[in-house]
Write a structure and sequence with these properties.
The chain has 11 helices and 18 strands. The chain is an alpha/beta fold. The protein has a single domain, classed as FAD/NAD(P)-binding domain (3-Layer(bba) Sandwich). The relative contact order is 0.19.
């Protein structure tokens, strides 16, 4: 189903605030000048909206590449679902080198940050955590181990790495409201912080809002719900698509009290999985910037099951480049994935890696003064490999 929704009109109906004027694209360090109608104006080179998995990877990569970055996060903690939604575990998946491995090793310096076996060799354990599920001889086999961490340790580690760059300004408790466009480019975005209107001008913007809020507000086309088989020719896609979304899973943090309890799970909450079969048998070539191999995990009733993958699949740069806006990228679960593919590509370490790719690409676009879709793919891939990102199976 193709849903055409104007979030700009919806936002207007809720907030009814006059839009600011169009402002030319700017380069330079962050400054506060207070443009007309705004409490504060910030100028930067790359603006990352959303401080979850993709956003932290994007901000860190861009800042390390030498450009000035502003990172917006609507909560008071970085990490997204890893720190705010009790999903403080990395599931086994191929890839996850680069920034994810660096985060793991940094957190391991805190003796209370990770849940690890006694006398654990960190490198061996991390490699084992990269053994994703496989379909072997027709059987689904779970091979690797997960990485469980304390949410506060993740937040502290990410903040420390960003602070060390000296180029990233983090705006906590700041919510994206609208994008201002001119000539197919976003020239600024408007955000809110405790009742204050903030205008942020940048050369490149990266949407890491989880639900693609910036892309939708900028007018990019998008789909919601299942994709019919006719759209992407996926073998396991339904002939007729339904409005089924990845459902909410209730998460709790519990402490052993020593008293036996009867497990309880509401009847209406079910979890099923299906597979990214289109990519299992061969590794795509061209503009791959990350690999993964997790089986598709689609929460909610009404979905279907498929085998685990037989081999890793690649995620191309094109998934991070929305059509129609020259200086906008996306690195979150709402990136250019089909409904089926999104269930395998949305894991935290995969999204951090995609953020790392988007951050590097954004920095290159600023450096060379080109559109994000004009970035040299081979040069980008070479940068990623140098940063220990695996892009081949």
């Amino acid at each position: 189903m193709n849903i055409n929704i104007s979030r700009r009109n919806a936002a207007k109906s809720f907030l009814a605030v006059a839009a600011g004027g169009m402002i030319p694209s700017l380069k330079g360090e962050a400054v506060t000048t207070g443009a007309k109608g705004y409490d504060e104006t910030i100028r930067t080179q790359v603006c990352v909206i959303g401080g979850g998995s993709g956003g932290t990877g994007a901000a860190l990569a861009a800042a390390r590449a030498g450009v000035d970055v502003v990172l917006l996060e609507r909560d008071s903690i970085l990490g997204g679902t890893a720190t705010s939604s009790f999903v403080n575990v990395w599931r086994p998946v191929t890839g996850g080198d680069g920034i994810p491995r660096e985060l793991f090793m940094a957190m391991a310096r805190d003796p209370s940050a990770l849940t690890l076996p006694a006398n654990c060799d960190l490198n061996s354990y991390y490699i084992k955590s990269q053994l994703g599920p496989r379909n072997i001889a027709g059987k689904n086999v779970k091979r690797g181990v997960g990485v469980t961490f304390e949410p506060r340790a993740m937040d502290y580690t990410v903040r420390s790495l960003l602070d060390a760059t000296g180029r990233c300004k983090i705006l906590f408790s700041t919510t994206f409201y609208r994008a201002h466009l001119k000539d197919n480019k976003i020239v600024s975005i408007e955000a809110w912080f405790k009742g204050k209107r903030i205008l942020i001008q940048a050369s490149v913007f990266i949407d890491c809002t989880a639900d693609g809020d910036v892309c939708a507000d900028a007018g990019c086309a998008y789909h919601m719900g299942e994709d019919p088989k006719s759209r992407y020719n996926e073998p396991h896609a339904p002939e007729k698509a339904r409005m089924l979304l990845n459902g909410l899973t209730l998460c709790y943090r519990i402490t052993d009290t020593g008293v036996k309890q009867k497990p309880y799970l509401p009847e209406e909450i079910k979890e099923n999985s299906c597979s990214l079969s289109a990519c299992y048998d061969r590794m795509p070539n061209g503009d791959i910037v990350a690999i993964a191999d997790h089986h598709i995990d689609i929460h909610g009733s009404g979905h279907f099951k498929c085998p685990f993958p037989k081999a890793p699949f690649g995620i191309p740069l094109r998934c991070l480049q929305p059509k129609g806006v020259e200086n906008l990228m996306i690195a979150c679960r709402a990136a250019g994935f089909s409904h089926i593919a999104s269930g395998a590509a949305r894991l935290q370490r995969t999204l951090i890696t995609l953020g790392q790719a988007a951050g590097n690409a954004a920095a290159m676009a600023v450096e060379k003064n080109v559109r994000v879709d004009q970035v040299d793919v081979k040069e980008l891939q070479a940068r990623l490999v140098k940063q220990n990102v695996t892009i081949t199976a």
